Amino acid sequence: MDRYWERFKTPFLCFAGFSGVGKTTLLVELIKRFRRDHIRAGYYKHDAHRFQMDKEGKDTWRAQQAGAGILTINDPEHFAIIAENPFKKRSITHALEQCDCILIEGYKKSPFNKIVFLDAEGRLPISRDDTGIKAVVHQGVIDDTGLTDLGIPLFHRDEVDRIYEFVRGHFLRCTSPIYGGVFIGGQSKRMGKAKFSLAYNGKTEAERMVDLLSRFCDKVVLSARPDQDLGDLEALTNCERLNDEHNGLGPVGGLATLMANHPDKAWLVVACDMPFLKERNVRHIIEQRDPLRYGTCYMKKGRLGVEPMCGIYEPKFIVPLFEAMSRRELSLSRIINELPFHCISVPEDKRSDFMNVNTPEEYEVARVKREQEED
Question: Which of 9, 71, 296, 371 is most buried as measured by Cβ atoms within 10 A of its Cβ?
């Protein structure tokens, strides 16, 4: 059997059973409900027989017969790829990863999570000892009364709404824990000194950000340059230092280092030069988090106003992130704009929460304002 899809970072669920038990009919109804809820569901069909998508005599058929390894065809609204097996793993996983969840039809003997369909006589297609069985769908007859002892849901195949709520809940329960990353490795050339060391009311901004993220994240990391002297920050006990392994690539390289060292975690990242970022901003983005997307970010103004330095990046973001680095695409905002992110709008009167401080003059204005706010 194909096993490459077991590496999907997008959550997936197999729907397994004998032919004719209603798998496709149910999956079509589930896809409709996912679409209604604005969730991008991918569909993966395992066909045990050879399938044919092309028509004999057509241009793409002729090109395939001539030996083309990959064929693509597109119109203004769709595209399709027909390829030989050597290209299968990369093509299919790359396409399906861009969905929020994946519904796989087939693979009843796989070791992965699955919903199993009973046949008309109420019989299971596999052993009920299979630990991957998360629910059972029947047609009104259950031959094995021991299924009730497994502690898993039993659904009639017509209970589409109940099945949908279970499947959607299963995907949401696959949410990864959140780690926090405070970016302090900037060169600070315009400021003339390290921005992480700038103090407001006697406390450095880096310390404030670490304390802020510690309230929401399982672990907090300082993303720093390898040659960087952190001074008093080295003594902080509620975070650890992680040196950027892609020095010179800015926040893209820092985030790539964080994700590569902890690939099973989501990352909430902030910069150390945002003195007006507040607890309410961090709490709100966590409450609004959509773990089925590539990430969640604030949208300050139109489609061009993404705030990448107060955002949540889900584990599957690591793939397009490294692909962008290989192209020397070093703008997190542009990478985000090319992917399905969940974007949260920022009211006009709250945009100043995300203001950066880059010069001594800006720091002085921010320092005075912060002192006035905390009086």
Answer: 296
